Amino acid sequence: MTSVHLHAPAKINLYLAVLGRRPDGYHDIETLFQAIDLYDDVYIKKAADRTTLQLPNHPELETADNSALHALAWLEQWAGRSLPVEITIQKRIPIAAGLGGGSSDAAAVLAGVRALYGLDIPDDELARGALSVGADAPFFLKGGAAVGEGVGEKLTRVKLPDNYAIILVNPGFPVSTAEVYRLYSKGLTGRFAEGRLWRLLADNADIGDLLHNDLQPVCEALHPEAANVRKSLAAAGIEQILMSGSGPTVFGIVKDGRTLEQTRRRAAAHAKQSWSLASARPIPFGVRIC
To answer: Model confidence over 66-114: pLDDT tens digits?
Structure first.
């Protein structure tokens, strides 16, 4: 094998509660991840001597700080040798949008280079490598639906209904996750809140009943345009609406898949030209080789 092509899916957070701020500055959260069929394409090819990274249409991301290169660096440290590759990432997931695109790309590099070089890395060890890149990166190695605890890295896979679709609207600007958490922290009392997600899941709550995001009001205060996105989906007749992660992407639940295209047209009619719309469905897997 000299090359590999992977799909790196996006995720949405169906539920996100911030339980408290830890002494190390990170936050304990309780979240419900769901992988969706909106993908980046990640192409990895063995190279003769040095690694290169290309992101067509996004040259600003071709830097040493890219999460894909951090993932490769972890693999090289684990292997104790250089693993030169040519990485090309075709971005479809909006950048810094609350959908985990960068973390998913990093997870794809971990899985792809492991396969390409035949590295004997156990899955749990690869997950530790993913965590070194980002708190949500371990989720993308398995995907599906999972409860995330701790900083999001303590994962428990769960079975959720998948008979729905979603409309995603991104207003076209990035949001700093660190800034959103910093502002949210100003309202914390210092006492950790008790989680309630597991109780909701035990009650077999409907997907719509699960929807919750502590960070949404903060993002909307920072970026009022994000609130306009939410209002536009409501104007299109969608009742179950939530921001994903730290934003600014907002999604609406469409229970009847037969009405998805009609609902998408209504959403597009209420959207600004600078916004991007996509439709997607939940998937039971994470990054995978095509």
So the answer is: 999 999 999 999 999 999 999 999 999 999 999 999 999 999 999 999 9
User: Is 186 an active-site residue?
Assistant: no
| Residue 268 annotated as binding site | no
pLDDT in tens, 224-276: 999 999 999 999 999 999 999 999 999 999 987 668 889 999 999 999 999 99
Among this protein's residues, is 214 annotated catalytic?
no
* Confidence grade of residue 219 (pLDDT, cut at 50, 70, 90): very high
> What is the share, in percent, of the chain residues with pLDDT greater than 70?
99
The answer to whether the annotation marks 172 as part of a ligand binding site is: no
| Own/partner pairs, 218-223, CB within 8 angstroms, 24+ separation | 218/180, 218/183, 218/184, 219/175, 219/180, 219/243, 219/246, 219/247, 219/248, 220/247, 221/183, 222/175, 222/179, 222/180, 222/183, 223/171, 223/173, 223/175, 223/247, 223/248
| CATH homologous superfamily of 165-280 | GHMP kinase, C-terminal domain (3.30.70.890)
Is 100 among the annotated ligand-binding positions?
yes
CB-side neighbour CA atoms (13 Å) of 1: 15
Q: Catalytic one among 28, 40, 136, 214?
A: 136
Domain boundaries, the chain: 3-158, 165-280
Just give the CATH number of 3-158.
3.30.230.10
Given 11, 28, 142, 214, which residue is catalytic?
11
25 in a known ligand binding site: no
